[in-house]
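Recall that a protein's primary structure is simply its ordered list of amino acids. Everything else, from secondary elements to tertiary packing, is in principle encoded there. The following example makes that idea concrete.
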Amino acid sequence: MTADDIPELIKSFIATHIQSVEQLEILLLLTENAERDWSAAEVSNSLVIHLESAFVRLKELSGKGLLVSTPEPDPRYRFQPSTPEVAKLLHDLADVYKRRRVSVITLIFSKPLDNIRSFADAFKLRKDEE
């Protein structure tokens, strides 16, 4: 399976909702452990990432309707997407990520380059425009 073999729905989800591998890892951790609530500290310890980064990513995912959270000051987060279809998509994404980790990571990292290239191309001068 290459990136071309990843289902279009999953590619679209990654393109619109996932900004980093760290964010994806957090989402998948909570997806695969949907029966429990997680604090930012627990996520940080489990994935060996900075506490502040875990907190920011959890808030982002909650804001996108992929997680629910308890009120601050010490929020806890749980996998509970807005629809059953999104839940199935995330379980499918977890399965694809287990089998094709490099392809999924490539999709995530290729997004900014595509945007940067498009932006840079807007400023290219053609010979006939000089």
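The domain at 3-123 is CATH 1.10.10.10 (Arc Repressor Mutant, subunit A). The chain has one domain: 3-123.
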